[in-house]
Amino acid sequence: MSVMYVALPIAIALGATALWACVRAIRNGQFDDLESPPMRMLIDDQPQSPQEPTDE
Amino acid sequence: MSTATIPPNAPNGVPCAHCGLPAPRPRAGQTESFCCHGCRGAWELIRTWGLEEYYQLRDSPGEEIDEEATRNWDDLDDPRLLGRSAPLAVETDSRTPLLRSTLAISGIHCAACLWLIERAPERIAGWHSSQVNMHQRTVELTFDPTTIRLSEIGRWLHRVGYSVEPLADSEDDSKDEASQQLLVDLALAGFCAANAMWIAIALYAGQFTGMAANHQQFLRIAGVGLGVAAVIFPGRIFFRSAIASVQTRTPHMDLPVAIGLMAGMLASIYALIDRDADVYFDSIACLVFFLLTGRWLQLRQQRRAGEAVATLMRLSPTVATRLNPDGSTARVAAETLALDDHIIVRPGESIPVDGTIISGKSMVDRSLMTGESCPVQAVVGNAVEAGTENLQADLHIQVTARGDETRLANLQRAVADAAATRTPIIQLANRIGAWFVVVVLLLSLATAIAWFLIDRSQMMGNVVALLIVACPCALALATPLAIAVSIGRLAKRQVLVRSGDCLERLSRPGILFLDKTGTLTKGRMQVSHWIGDNEHLPAVGKIEAGIRHPIAHALTRFVEAELSVDLDSLPPASKVNQQVGRGVEGEFQGQHYRLGSVQLLGTPDFDNHNHNHTPQPSGEECLDDRWKSAIESVIAAGSSPVVLMKEQQCRGVFGVSDPLRDEASDVIQWFINEGWQIEILSGDHQPTVSQVASKLGLSEESARGGLLPNEKLAFVQAAAGKLPVIMVGDGVNDAAALAAADVGVAVRGGASASLAAAPIVIDGGSLTGVQSLVVGARQARQTIRRNFGISISYNIVAVGLAMAGWITPLVAAALMPASSLTVLGLTLASPTNGEPSKAKHTIPGKATHLRES
Questions:
Q1: Residue B607 has pLDDT above 60, yes or no
Q2: Could you confirm whether domain B484-522+660-777 is CATH 3.30.2130.10?
Q3: Which among B24, B55, B455, B802 could bridge B466 via Cys, Cβ 3.0 to 4.6 Å?
Q4: Which fold has domain B73-169?
Q5: Is B184 close to A27, i.e. CB distance below 8 A?
């Protein structure tokens, strides 16, 4: 059972990594607007001329 | 002679293809009909772009296009006037630098709007992209400054019904940060709770199957570490507000929660040292997580409502046109103006400062300040206030007060004061919850003493089981969850609730104060009577078309609807001359016409226009009995008469009035039936207010007219404290009263100050919203009570069992989430029936047509 001394910290560390990623996403503002992305997803892209502007 | 046969906006009219408002029938050869030129323009533009799909995508009709707006879009090109919205250069690989600006946008309501705005750049050269943020109601525009100016984009967007404004220099960023911080805390608490839970399961399992003591201690250390982390990091906000509640001596739910958390944490740490005792870090971590979840849900809903309101606000103009001594003009930010500076206010603009008119003569719409439905005359020497609107002609104004010194700013300060002094109502949750943990702690002490005497070995287990089952998770969730659900449901009915505790104040009948102009009435002049021959109408339409005055708009709309013609197709009127406060005259097809009030008839010819029909018949002479009786009948019906004269002969009488909202009388009746007391508080003239009251079936005493803003405030303050007081209004003159009332309800379309003052805003502008609000509040209260009932009876039963030693900590831990889940499920499944149906589009009142005999 002494494997637990290794397994538990690893499990916590894995969870903490996910938590870190989540906090980063929140700080990045990814959760600020929960309304537009689901709507944008429903909009089909139109076959566009090549000079379609890109945002970034 | 014939009279009108088709009433304007009659039920047999068709919806406008763009905005859905009633419109005249389509003209010959066309299938679509439009209520106004603005909507036709928007529809045609969208077709030209090839984006007609918009009309299939959208789920509610667009907004009416305000073609009258004479906004100075050029302000968008001056970065100094844009504040936070000033364009910034974007790094691109191409040689030309692009600019990006974030602007507040209004008019967006569904996915189709987003689609349209994000697609439009593909059709316009130089406009590279637009990115809509539905939540904050902003749009990020990227454009090539060498090809297109920001003002042009503003104009394009305006033509399809969206209007952009520079972002206000508000605390939006700090609000975002607060919300992000809460979400981070929630994530942290969730992490601690989930991990503490599985460690707890391992420990409970270990109790049954046996487990090495060192392993057990290791798990306990890890678990307590997580529990303590949950209390110290995300849980700190409870301690902070508990300390505040002790300092201000106001009982608050956070106080018992903080005591509970502290007790749980200390007991767990003690148990870590004393190996025999149990640890219950998992319940502490879960408690923090659940509490934060409830808090976040409520905050999210309130914030959404708040954001929606923020975009409706348009403060008094921040930009002014300064007249320099050398005669040149410059657009400058209003706060940079000095006293005694001269400014020019164009017709259609709001006045940015308090001042005195030094030249010019115009009509000023003061309805924001006083609630008066008719514009007043403004001549040299008159004082004008910031926030009022100049309607007719250029005014040169000498600045006497600006910024914080204006009457508007004073009024806004009065609003803030009224809001600050309102007695807080202690929430049900706080009243009950305040002593919850104290009682639990006393009970656990009693249990410990009792079992110490009965059986020492069972003492610790029973105390722990009691503390676990008594965990106030369900209690903590009950109120915020019910309120969040109610706010969400009300938002679907276009009632935006910005402060959840308002809902608790509406549970019993009280006094309902209503403003008149714009709240009970539509706030928009309409022709209610027309007595005369239709052959004169084209002249009326053409002469009034260029005039900026509510009555002129009413007449033009009436003529267009009545004749089903496009006024543009008619020959123009000439020599149009407007006499402020009296009327209009002009020539149409060689004939001389005059339109105006009854007094106009008695006046001699308009000053310098030399017409060839002197001598004038005096006013009374040209009115025979038939016209006199027509005028009397118009006045008797509560409308203002407008007389049409052709070549000095009376040819017709219009009745113009601000009609009641269609739902007003039903809603008032509903409130009376529910036992509410109803009063009208208006700044308008007493006879007009009495007329409205009698139409609504209210007594004379309940109609109070001619009130100044502070008198409205006095009425509300006198009534507050005894019964719940709702104030419904829309003007700046209502704002202080809105803030002082237990619940202030602002009607959309009103002044920004009233929107800012009221915790609740009815977005649809329909009075049925007030009804939905009261019904929704009642349901929220029922839900809260039921939630409390469930969680408290659960706690009583479980605590009793734990004290008797009938449940082990393991069973208690399994029971703990059960009550939370019950509360959650029942709240989400709470009934929504019994709410009044939403009248989405009101049917405009039918004009009465009296036959000219």
A1: no
A2: no
A3: B802
A4: Alpha-Beta Plaits (3.30.70)
A5: yes
